[in-house]
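Q: Please design a sequence for this.
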């Protein structure tokens, strides 16, 4: 037997308006977390070299028990161009994959993926002595968002995910463009991008964030 559906155009319009507003890049809640993260990392830049030295991922320091560096290394940068490119990545993230999350949920996601980046470097890239920057975290958050978009039928997100995957492979096999490394003032650590993606996928699976939305019952 088919369930009788209540036809309420006004309610449907209100629901659609709310969905568009909540998922729109113009919604303050979608921008605010990344704005705060960008401002925080920018303020740390003002501290100069002493702050960078104290917070960057450093293999020897982590081995000596300075575990906070496994996350804080994401927050400091080589210079303002390096910071600017990472902030642009966050802007792209909000435009392509806007989400309104509870603060605790957003903070957990950032902590897990960010720590996963440096933890992966510590375990699997033994020749790397230090690392700074938000790019690994940004890659992870982008892939997390693209997968969520794909699950609701966004075909453009499939192309975006393919581009990110191709870029990571290119960086690891061919290397980043020399012009980019000159501009940011150091080498691009492609492995950080890979570990950010892996951490994001693990987080999404562990929190069951990659489930397809349930279809409404019709019978």
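A: Design:
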């Amino acid at each position: 037997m088919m369930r009788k559906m209540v036809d309420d155009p006004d309610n449907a319009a209100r629901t659609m308006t709310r969905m568009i507003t909540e998922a729109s890049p113009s919604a303050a809640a979608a921008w605010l977390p990344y704005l705060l993260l960008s401002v925080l990392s920018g303020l740390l830049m003002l501290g100069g070299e002493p702050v960078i030295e104290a917070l960057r991922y450093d293999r020897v320091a982590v081995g000596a028990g300075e575990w906070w560096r496994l996350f804080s290394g994401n927050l400091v940068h080589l210079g303002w161009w390096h910071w600017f490119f990472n902030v642009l990545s966050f802007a792209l993230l909000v435009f392509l994959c806007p989400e309104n999350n509870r603060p605790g949920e957003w903070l957990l996601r950032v902590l897990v993926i960010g720590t996963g980046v440096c933890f992966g470097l510590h375990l699997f890239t033994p020749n790397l002595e230090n690392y700074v920057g938000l790019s690994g975290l940004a890659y992870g958050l982008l892939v997390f968002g693209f997968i969520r978009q794909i699950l609701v039928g966004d075909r453009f997100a499939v192309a975006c995910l393919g581009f990110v995957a191709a870029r990571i492979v290119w960086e690891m096999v061919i290397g980043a463009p020399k012009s980019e490394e000159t501009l940011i003032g150091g080498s691009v650590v492609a492995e950080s991008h890979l570990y950010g993606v892996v951490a994001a996928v693990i987080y999404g699976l562990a929190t069951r964030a990659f489930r397809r939305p349930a279809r409404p019952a019709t019978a």
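Q: Thanks. Anything notable?
A: Residues 1-23 have pLDDT under 50 and may be disordered. The longest strand covers residues 57-58.
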